[in-house]
Design a protein that fits this description.
Blueprint: H1 2-18, H2 23-33, H3 35-49, H4 51-76, H5 81-87, H6 106-115, H7 126-149, H8 156-164, H9 177-195, H10 198-203, H11 210-228, H12 236-266
Helix pairs in contact: 3-4, 3-11, 4-6, 4-7, 4-9, 7-9, 9-12, 11-12
Length: 276
């Protein structure tokens, strides 16, 4: 694992030092490779192309990100500061590095969504999604407090990044571990609410043409900006609550509200029947 991290540092450093004129390109690549992009971009794109594949991408996204969070705790939770400092883990990395290649999961997550579409749960009882969301929250909390009780500092990377980053404001609040948990649990609950909403019931059997699907995607992306920036506050507890709520809302918008609006406004009225 240390060799993989060292290789990631070396790649990031080489890209920044040898190709500095591509900085904006790599920032864009970093955005597309961010796990959050699976929820906010790839999930809607896949859903409007194929309903089953889109739901599969969402399932794989939240499961993969949750497993990524837990495995990072189990693998790196026992790494004290002296290991990071003496190993040169941060001294090898340029101050501007935000995300290493090994941390990108967007590509594998999207591919798994396409491959596992026939196996993922599609439409279950609302209680199934509520219990899934609750299990993610309680399971992660149990793991966190168990490791914390054992004396493991699970926030060591945040502390080091805040201390050594050239500009502390670059350490975004949504990079904290429980930010991804609130995103995953909120998405699981939101999926269930969306699938049982009246809007979804009206459009689930409707046929949407290519133009309508493009309109759905454009409208969803138009709602993305305001929703994504909602709730960025320095108060961590409030941020977690708002993050949970907005990712609960996101599947409702993508699966139900946006297709319903597009379908209602683009549906052609039947011509009146002339009496003979």
């Amino acid at each position: 694992m240390e060799s993989a991290m060292s290789a990631g540092i070396a790649v990031a450093e080489a890209l920044q030092n040898q190709l500095p004129w591509l900085e904006n390109v790599w920032l864009w690549v970093n955005f597309l490779g961010d796990p959050k992009s699976l929820f906010l971009f790839y999930f809607p794109a896949a859903y409007y192309a194929s309903r089953r594949v889109g739901i599969a991408v969402l399932w794989i996204s939240l499961i993969a990100e949750w497993l990524n969070l837990v495995f990072k705790w189990l693998l790196f939770g026992d790494r004290p500061f002296w290991w990071v400092h003496e190993s040169g883990y941060y001294s090898q990395a340029p101050a501007q590095v935000h995300q290493f290649p090994s941390s990108c999961e967007t590509g594998p997550g999207a591919v798994l969504g396409w491959l596992m579409a026939p196996q993922v749960p599609m439409e279950r009882e609302l209680s199934f999604y509520g219990l899934t969301s609750l299990a993610l929250l309680l399971g992660t909390s149990l793991i966190y407090w168990t490791l914390f009780t054992l004396g493991l500092d699970l926030s060591w990377s945040i502390s080091l990044a805040s201390k050594w980053c050239e500009r502390p404001e670059w350490v975004h609040v949504d990079t904290r571990p429980f930010a991804s948990l609130s995103r995953d649990s909120g998405s699981a609950l939101g999926l269930g609410i969306a699938l049982h909403s009246p809007c979804y019931a009206q459009v689930r059997r409707a046929y949407l043409g290519n133009g309508q699907k493009i309109a759905c995607f454009v409208l969803a992306m138009g709602l993305l900006g305001p929703l994504d920036w909602l709730g960025y506050t320095p108060q961590i507890s409030i941020f977690y609550i708002v993050n949970f709520l907005k990712y609960t809302l996101w599947p409702c918008l993508v699966l139900a509200l946006v297709p319903w609006v597009v379908h209602m406004f683009s549906a052609q009225e039947a011509p009146p029947i002339r009496s003979s």
